[in-house]
C-alpha cells in the first residue's frame, strides 16, 4: 500500500524533496490504477511532472551558467599568465557583471589590478567597483508560499491516498 510521505498532506512546495516527490507520483499512479478516470489524480500527476521538468531545466541552466563563468575565469587567468592584462580584465568584467560575488573572479581581479598598475594600464570603471570586494555567501534558496494551484492541489494527494488505502482495504 502506498501513502503520502510522512508529514505531507500535499505535494512538496519547492519540489526539492526528491523522495517525497517520487512518493507522490507513485501515489497518484496507484490512484489512477484504481480509477483511470480520476481527474484530480491525473491533473496532480501532470502538474507534478511539469514542475519537476521545469526544476530540472532550471538546474541544468544554472549548471551551464556556472560552467561558463568558471571557463571565463580560467580564460582570464590564462590571459594574465600570458601577459594579456586587457583580455584578462575583459573576461573578468563579463563574469562579474553576471555574478558580482564570484569568488575566484574577485580573487583574480586583485592580481589583474596589480598587473595593470605594474604595466601602467587603467582598468575599466566597471571593474574598479569590484576591487577589494570580498565574496558574499549566496542567500539560501527561499521557500515560496504555495500559490492558487498548490492550494487547490492540497486536496488531491489526500484523494489519491484514500483511493490507495481503499485498494488495501478492499483488495
Question: Notable features of this structure?
Answer:
single chain; 171 residues; mainly alpha; 7 helices; disordered N terminus; disordered C terminus
What does this structure look like?
This protein is mainly alpha-helical. 68% of the residues lie in helices and 0% in strands. It is built from seven helices and no strands. The chain has helices at residues 18-34, 39-81, 85-98, 103-119, 125-128, 148-153, 156-170. The N and C termini lie close together (10 Å). Mean pLDDT is 77; it is low at 1-8 and 139-171.
Short précis:
This protein is mostly helical and 171 residues long. The protein has helices at residues 18-34, 39-81, 85-98, 103-119, 125-128, 148-153, 156-170.
Compute the number of strand runs: 0
Low-pLDDT residue intervals, each spanning 5 or more residues: 1-8, 139-171
Mean pLDDT: 77
First-last Cα distance:
10 Å
Q: Report the total helices.
A: 7
Query: Can you summarize the main beta sheet?
Result: none
As an assembly, this protein is single chain
Give me the secondary-structure category: mainly alpha
The backbone outline, from C-alpha atoms, is rod-shaped
Strand content: under 5%
Percentage of residues in helical conformation: 55-70%
* Radius of gyration from the alpha-carbon trace, in angstroms: 25 Å
**Strand-and-helix sequence, N→C?**
HHHHHHH
Amino acid at each position: 500500500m502506498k501513502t503520502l510521505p510522512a508529514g505531507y498532506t500535499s505535494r512538496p512546495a519547492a519540489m526539492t524533496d526528491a523522495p517525497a516527490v517520487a512518493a507522490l507520483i507513485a501515489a497518484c499512479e496507484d490512484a489512477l490504477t484504481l480509477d483511470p478516470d480520476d481527474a484530480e489524480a491525473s491533473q496532480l500527476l501532470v502538474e507534478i511532472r511539469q514542475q519537476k521538468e521545469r526544476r530540472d531545466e532550471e538546474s541544468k541552466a544554472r549548471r551551464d551558467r556556472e560552467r561558463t563563468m568558471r571557463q571565463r575565469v580560467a580564460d582570464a587567468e590564462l590571459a594574465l599568465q600570458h601577459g594579456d592584462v586587457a583580455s584578462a580584465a575583459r573576461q573578468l568584467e563579463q563574469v562579474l557583471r553576471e555574478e558580482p560575488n564570484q569568488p575566484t573572479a574577485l580573487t583574480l581581479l586583485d592580481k589583474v589590478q596589480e598587473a595593470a598598475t605594474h604595466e601602467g594600464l587603467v582598468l575599466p570603471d566597471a571593474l574598479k567597483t569590484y576591487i577589494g570586494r570580498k565574496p558574499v555567501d549566496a542567500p539560501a534558496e527561499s521557500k515560496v508560499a504555495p500559490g492558487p494551484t498548490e492550494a487547490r492541489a492540497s486536496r488531491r494527494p489526500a484523494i489519491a491516498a484514500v483511493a490507495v488505502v481503499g485498494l488495501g482495504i478492499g483488495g
